[in-house]
Specification:
Chain A is mainly alpha-helical and 290 residues long. Chain A has helices spanning 3-31, 38-56, 60-82, 92-113, 140-162, 164-174, 176-181, 186-211, 219-233, 238-258, 263-277, and strands at residues 129-133, 136-139. In chain A, helix 9 (219-233) packs parallel to helix 11. Chain B has two domains: 39-243, no CATH class; 246-319. The chains are: A mainly alpha (290), B mainly alpha (335).
């Protein structure tokens, strides 16, 4: 595999990481909290997809169509019934509660599905590739993943930038108290944001499951990659997550090519390097600090 | 009419608590003469988790530093023990405090990175750095890569001697951590620290150096966590990167502190007892104890954020280790 190929694979991997990062970024942008169970929810979605694909012999796209709304509903209920109760109590409770959920989900998945690695039956899409000439070929599935990531980002940007609900999102993100005074139902808005976040991360989890194997403990790594993509891209920048994901993806594939054990480590080190040199990220939007 | 008041620090419960603590420590120090090795190993584990919990409580409960990456220092302390004792030929028991120092030294560059984050991002940032340490160790040939290493320096010792020394070392560490944090919090520095936790801008205007205060606490917690990591692996003898740098250290620690009561010295003690009892009760049910503990911790956070100790202290007004200052107003009119 040549270097150009390695870089192209890394860039495409960035599409998947952007899918993981978008939901995390959205929640932080609107509520200023970090959902530490973000990665575990994606793995939960992937397990649900495996169950549907294996038990009902569904195509994975159909399973996706079932699991994504289900996860969005779970997100809505999580925010309404659990996280909204913690509003106004500082940053500590939401972090500790989502961390607790992360450990609960991991151990529940271990009990339910054992420690074995699973994979969503890809139905042949994983091996199909597109020849670009010059000996370079890219997998169709990686291209589709990137395309889905771009579509999700466009959709989210249109929603936040053009709709009435989106304006309420922006207002609440800027100044929750004033937005609430203007009659915005912030609790309902947060529930909607969490539904969107878990819906998107369910897509990410299922695409991960089609692409490669995963197990009960795969969640934390997904959270870290998502987090790193957000920080590299710059807080508050939707398209920055795509660039951040791509940089992380390239770092990982190049690192793995240099030495097999160094893929993920190189990604982490590039993240720390960016943090050291440009702590605000590459495309940080200037926003009021609160 | 001027009212007389005095600042009261000790309470009757705190005098009883102090007496009980001294008695408990005296009883615990006789343990090697009558208990079986399995109970001693379990008690070492209990003390280790308790110290980890006290250290995390100091970070999160008193300094507002929500680290999810303390497993980094458990692992670094454990590996430092192996390198100091096996590779450099130092006494394995003396290596325990040195391992804590090494962890604190490595915490300095780590702080330079993670202190750029606030709140939730600090949490994930510390977690990412812990992963970096795990992967670096797992890729280092001299440290045994992914398979890890075995502590060989203690092999010449008789098993009873080693177990007794490990036990007393753990007990000393536990007492030192409790007394150290108590004294530290009651001193001027502790007052500044709690001011920082309650309001950073306000404490800054009162002359508290917020950054320095947080850094000192972070380094102290790294020292205590690293020394505990060394004790844990002196007890286990076998270390691997996945186990030593596992998030489950921090998960257990956080559950203990949250269930017991964050921001109190008594809370981690109560939480550690709950943790051990539940783990023993659910020993035959795989990882269910983590699910139960996690659910308990989440419920406590939702319904009663002061934790079990907070509930006890509020109901009966008991403070065994009071670090706060209470003002008592003398109502009797003076001539």
């Amino acid at each position: 595999m040549g270097w150009l190929d390695t870089v192209v694979q890394g860039l495409l991997l960035g599409g998947l990481y952007a899918l993981f990062a978008t939901g995390l970024s959205l929640i932080f942008g609107v509520m200023r909290i970090v959902n530490l169970a973000h990665g575990d929810f994606s793995i939960l979605a992937a397990f649900l997809a495996v169950m549907l694909v294996d038990a009902l012999a569904l195509h994975w796209l159909l399973a996706l169509a079932v699991v994504v709304p289900l996860m969005a509903l779970l997100g809505y209920l999580l925010q309404r019934l659990v996280l909204n109760r913690l509003l106004g109590r500082g940053i500590l409770p939401p972090i500790l509660v989502t961390f607790g959920l992360s450990i609960i989900i991991q151990n529940a998945l271990l009990e339910a599905f054992s420690a074995d690695s699973r994979r969503v039956n890809p139905g042949g899409i994983d091996t199909a590739s597109l020849a670009l000439g010059g000996g370079l070929a890219v997998g169709w599935f990686s291209l589709i993943t990137l395309l889905v990531a771009i579509l999700v980002l466009i959709g989210l940007q249109l929603f936040i930038g053009r709709t009435r609900r989106g304006r309420a999102f922006r207002a609440t993100a800027d100044d929750q108290a004033t937005a609430a005074l203007m009659g915005i139902d912030d609790r309902g808005l947060y529930a909607l944001a969490m539904a969107l976040s878990l819906g998107i991360v369910a897509i990410a989890g299922i695409f991960l499951g089609v692409r490669t194997t995963f197990a009960f403990g795969s969640g934390p790594d997904r959270l870290l990659f998502a987090f790193e993509a957000v920080i590299i891209g710059g807080l508050g920048s939707l398209w920055g997550t795509l660039v951040g994901g791509a940089i992380l993806g390239v770092a990982q594939t190049v690192g793995a090519k240099l030495s097999p054990g160094w893929g993920i480590l190189t990604g982490h080190l590039v993240f720390l390097g960016v943090l050291l040199v440009r702590p605000q990220g590459l495309f940080a939007r200037q926003r009021r600090r609160d | 009419m001027a009212q007389a008041f005095r600042v009261q620090r000790a309470t009757r419960a705190s005098r009883v608590g102090l007496g009980a603590a001294v008695l408990a420590i005296a009883a615990l120090s006789t343990l090697p003469f009558w208990a079986d090795p399995a109970s001693m190993r379990r008690l070492v584990e209990f003390i280790a988790l308790l110290v980890l919990a006290q250290m995390w409580n100091l970070l999160a409960g008193y300094a507002g530093l929500l680290s999810i990456g303390q497993q980094a220092y458990v692992g670094l302390g454990g590996y430092a023990l192996i390198v100091l004792a096996d590779d450099l030929g130092l006494d394995p028991f003396l290596s325990v405090p040195l391992a804590g120092l090494i962890a604190a030294l490595l915490a300095l560059p780590t702080a330079a990175l993670v202190f750029r984050f606030q709140g939730g991002y600090f949490a994930v940032g510390t977690w990412a750095v812990a992963e970096v340490f795990r992967l670096l160790v797992a890729n280092t040939g001299a440290l045994g890569r992914g398979t890890g290493r075995t502590l060989k320096a203690v092999f010449p010792l008789a098993r009873e001697t080693r177990e007794m020394a490990t036990y007393y070392l753990a007990l000393a560490l536990g007492v030192a951590a409790l007394v150290g944090i108590y004294v530290f919090l009651r001193a001027r520095f502790g007052l500044g620290l709690m001011a920082v936790r309650d309001s950073e801008p306000a404490s800054e205007t009162l002359g508290v150096d917020v950054f320095r205060t947080k850094l000192i606490v972070y380094l102290l917690a790294a020292f205590g966590t690293g020394a505990t990591g060394a004790v844990i692996y002196l007890n286990l003898l076998r270390i691997s990167p996945d186990a030593a740098f596992s998030i489950s250290w921090t998960a257990s620690t956080i559950f203990i502190v949250v269930i017991g009561g964050i921001g109190t010295l008594e809370g981690p003690l109560v939480g550690a007892v709950v943790f051990f009892v539940l783990r023993e009760l659910l020993a035959d049910y795989g990882s269910w104890y983590m699910i139960v503990l996690g659910t308990l911790a989440v419920s406590v956070m939702l319904a009663y954020p002061q934790g079990l100790w907070g509930l006890i202290a509020e109901s009966w007004g008991i403070h065994c280790f009071p670090v706060q200052r209470r003002v008592e107003v003398d109502d009797t009119p003076r001539p």
